[in-house]
Amino acid sequence: MTPAVKTLAEHIYVDLIGRTMFASGSPVTPDADKLARFSVKLAESFERVTKLMEVEDDPNRPVKFDVQLDDLASWDIKK
Question: Which residues contact 76 (CB under 8 A, 6 or more apart)?
C-alpha cells in the first residue's frame, strides 16, 4: 500500500466512523475492522481510477488511429 493510499484510507475511515457513529443516532455500532477494510478498498479504487484518468487525459499522449482498407475505399469521392 502506497503512502497516498494509506492516507486517503485513513481519511475515508475517519469520515465513515464519524458518519455512522455520530450522524445516524443509531445505537448499533459498526464493525471497525469492516469499515477499515472498506476504506482501504475505496482508497485503492480511487487511486487506480485516478491514474487511469491521468493517462487518458494526458495531452502529450500519442493518438492512435485505427484505419482499415474499407475506410480508405469510402473516401473515394466520385460524383
Answer: none
Residue 45: closest CA among 9, 7, 3: 9
Q: How far apart are CA 63 and CA 27, in angstroms?
A: 56
Q: At what angle do helices 32-56 and 3-18 cross, to 10 degrees?
A: 130
Which structural domain, as residue segments, surrounds residue 40? 1-79
What digits encode the pLDDT tens for the residues 28-66?
778 889 999 999 999 999 999 988 887 777 777 776 777
3-state secondary structure the chain: CCHHHHHHHHHHHHHHHHHHHHHCCCCCCCCHHHHHHHHHHHHHHHHHHHHHHHHHCCCCCCCCCCCCHHHHHHCCCCC
The predicted model scores a pTM of 0.62
Q: Are 42 and 49 in contact (CB under 8 A)?
A: no
